[in-house]
Write the C-alpha cells for this entry.
Amino acid sequence: CDDADPEVNSEASEIPNNDIDEDCDGEALIIDEDGDGFNSDEDCDDADPEVNSEASEIPNNDIDEDCDGVALVIDEDGDGFNSDEDCDDSDPDINSEASEIPNNDIDEDCDGVALVIDEDGDGFNSDEDCDDADPEVNSEASEIPNNDIDEDCDGVALVIDEDGDGFNSDEDCDDSDPDINPTAMEICDDLDNNCNGLVDDGLTTSTYYYDTDGDGYGDETNSVIDCDQPEGTVLNFDDCDDSDPDVNPEGIEIVNNEIDEDCDGEDLLSSANQIEEKEFLIYPNPTKDLLFIEIIGQDEFIVELYDSNGSLIKSSMNAGFLNLESLPNGLYYIHVLVRDESLFIIKPIVILK
C-alpha cells in the first residue's frame, strides 16, 4: 500500500498512533486504552484516564498525572513535610513532628488539637497563670497582703504597712500609728503599744477612787486600777457619801439629823435624857463675843465648848456666859452637863464677827 516504504507491507508490524497503515489493512493503528483521548504514545499511563498530558497534577502522591516526567511535590515551608501531611505548610515550625507549645491556640504537631494546660483547673492556662499548681493563684484572684505570694499574678506580692513603721498590717495591731508595733515600748495610755494583746502591761499600777462630789475623799465602791491617776480620782476611799461634799471625814457633824457628816459610822445624837429646850437658853446665836447660858432651875452645871473637829476649846463651871471674842469665825458646839440629874444638852454655835 506504500511501495516507496519497505516498512509498509501486508506483513509489517503496525506501529500504533503514527497515522501510518504499516500492515496495509486499511487502518492506521490507534491505541488509547484508558479512553482519555490521549494515545498510548503520549499517555504515560494509558491504563489511567486521570493520567495524561493535560491532567491536573495532584501533589505529594508520587504520581505524574500530567506526564511531564515529574510527580508534583509541595513543601512550601521547607520543613520536610509535604503539604498533604503538613497542616500549615507556610510555617516550618508546624508539622507532624513539631513540639506542641501549650496555650497558644496553635496545633503545632498537626494532631488536630491545640495543646491547653491548666493543671490547677482554675480556668487560667499555664502561660498566664503564674502558679498553675495552685487554683487560688491566677490573674483574677484576690491578693492576700503580707504572705509573700503573688496571688493575682501581677508580679508583685502585696505588702501593706500603712504607718510605715516597718511592720506589716498582719503583725501590726494598729497599722495607722507608727508608735504601735511589736517592738514599741509599752506606755501608760490605755493602748496595747507592743501588740502583745495586753493593755499597759508591765507598768506599775495603783487603785484610784472616784471623788464625785469633789471633796477630796474617794468612794470605795467606785474605783479603777491604772498606771496614771485619772482625772477626778483620789487615792483614799474615806468618803461615806460621795454625792454630798459636806459629808466626809472632815465634815461637821449636825446633831440628830440622821446623817453621818464626819463618816465616823454614826450620827451625832443628843441623849434621850437631855434637857428639853424650854428648860435652857443659849444666846445670842450666832454671836460675836459673849455667849449666855441659862439653865432654868439649875445652879450647878458644866459648860464645854468644842470646835468642829471635836477638840475641847473652853470649859467652865456654873458660869452664865462664855467669852468667845478671841475665837475665829466658824461652827462650834456647846455641851452643857447638869451633874446631879445627869442631864445634858449639845447645841451648835456659830461665831460670826
Observations:
- Strands lie at 206-210, 223-226, 233-234, 280-283, 290-295, 302-307, 312-317, 321-323, 330-338, 343-351.
